[in-house]
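Appendix B, Record 12. Input sequence as logged:
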Amino acid sequence: MTPPVSPAARAADDPGLAELASESVILFDMAGRVRYWNPAAEILFGWPPLGIVGRTIAHLSPPVDGGGWRQLLQEGRWQGIVQRRSPSGAYVGAAVRQHVRYHDDGTPRDIVEYGHGVSDGNPLRYADDQVSDARLAATWEIDISGARAAIDAVAGQHEILEPAELDARLRAVVQAARIVEVNDRTARLVGGNRGRALMVGQSVADFWPVGSRATLGELIVDAACCETDDAVHRRALASDGILRDPTLSVWPADSDAAADRLFVAVNGAADDDRSYPYLRASEARYRKLIHFMPVALWQVDASRMGKIYAELRARGVTDFEGYLEEHPELVALAATTVPVTDVNRSAIQLIGGSNAQDLIQPVGYLFAESLDSLRRVMIGRFSGRQNYSEFMKVRRLDGRILDVRFSVTYPEPLLELDTTIFSLEDVTDRLRMESQLRQIQADFSHAARISTLGELTSSIAHEVNQPLAAIMTNAETSLRWLARPDIDFEKVRQLTARIAASARRADDIVGRIRGMAAKQPPELVALNLNEVVQESLLFVRHEVDTRAIRVMASYARGLKLVTGDRIQLQQVVVNLLINAIQAVEAQSETDREIALATGADPDGAIWFSLRDTGPGIAPEHLGRIFEGFFTTKHDGMGIGLAICHSIVAAHGGSIAVENRPDGGAEFRFSLPGETRAARGGQAAERKARPRATIAPSDD
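Logged structural output:
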């Protein structure tokens, strides 16, 4: 009957299983060199795999009186008690079983050892058979070849240098040391989301807690200058928020293998008292949540650019935007070197990839249609912002262009990690619908203007007839003067000048009407609100005159300009004027008054107000007065004030109405004032008349 195979024996053939074994599992080659060292062996003997794999058994202890190793090679198996040296220099007793494994041709292949700790000849028993993550060291293999100059600058200088200078030099040693390899625990504790692969080649300082960098630097110097390869340099550290009461150990690698390599191990329990399986399960839940979120997410490692930003700050660069204008190659560098390290399912769907690997590449593909967006992202990172957002375009893998809302969340500076999160929201359909809505609103506004002009037909006819009548009168008079035998050329010249002036006036009137009636997209320019009001009054002058309405206008001096569309703002004022005219015409002639005014609020907003002496607005209608198709007139459409509201809102302003205590209604709208810097060289504001009264025309 075939004897049962123990779990440890099966684990020797499967390193993945050996990682989970509670028994020490070590694999030697036939020369006694360690090829594999499982976590239980690390717990038993104290050496982490990074620091022991590749060394010979002689580094741990001489062969057991020479007989055990010889017997093993002769008989293929051996068991007994061995003493192995730990990093602290103390010896650890272990009960081990060693087996030689053979190739198919019968030649020895390697040696597998299984072991348990012993004390006073009795096997040690742990509280459980699980290999606790907290009992493993966070292990680093580092390269100090680039730190030799920094090491030489501090070696033997401890007693001479001032404390601040010594601290700075020791930190420089850590900064110059580079990561060759780390174990899983190190990656979990300090690697953030980057993992082992992205830590390799980086400075040790990028991941080592700030508070103990000088201590690490001191042990690196000690190990680098020590003549004994076996020496382990150890120091207790203060709790750093990552591990509780950690112990730091540094020792050199085998000098025959790598003269500039050191091993660093940090032992200590995680400071949050939670087991690794719990943390791993928590991370798995977090990653699952992120993976299935409906928002497309990219995880980006911007650590390389973070170093460049730090160097620029150290050189005194403060105007980073100006620096990028002079060095556009830095934006191109970011596009080609900053890697995407992870994406979720929504990101793959948004870009049209088949799997995550299609998107795991430098971030440049996200900014192919908008490189300026990447420049603004870099400016936000340099200036220390927590987040940034804008609308931009992105190209899918199938070539289709999308409109997206792009947002970036920058890392917290104190965490000393540089994991940046991008999120993209497809707003293509939304922007298309908004564009269609704006077009509908523009058409609606145009229809309202045409309707308003229809109400002003008599005024328009009167305005046009006046210059036409003057032209006709002056032309007939000119003909009579030209028919005289003694022609008075000076008189004819005066009459011709009047004809030209009347023609220009007619042209201005027609131009205003055509502008109001034309269907054209809004044109946002810097405007003087006083001028807009004065031009609007010209449309209703005849209505005012024929109804004997007194219009009092008070214009504030020195108003800031506003940014807006002249025709649309004129439409608002004309609409309010027509409503006021209709409100006061039922009053007696002595009570028909409309008062206009402009001014500025303390916050810089520019306002216009219109007060009338009409009956006011019924209290129950005040809350609905700007609703579409709401009207109190029997023949009204209810679109005039709704259009006024939408135009003012589109200009970033607000409009309101209230009844005055002494009778009548007051409408008031305000618009954001334009700063001088935003005008970009606009002409200085024209001075407005301090006060004006529109009286009945003499024409």
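The chain is about 40% helix and 20% strand.
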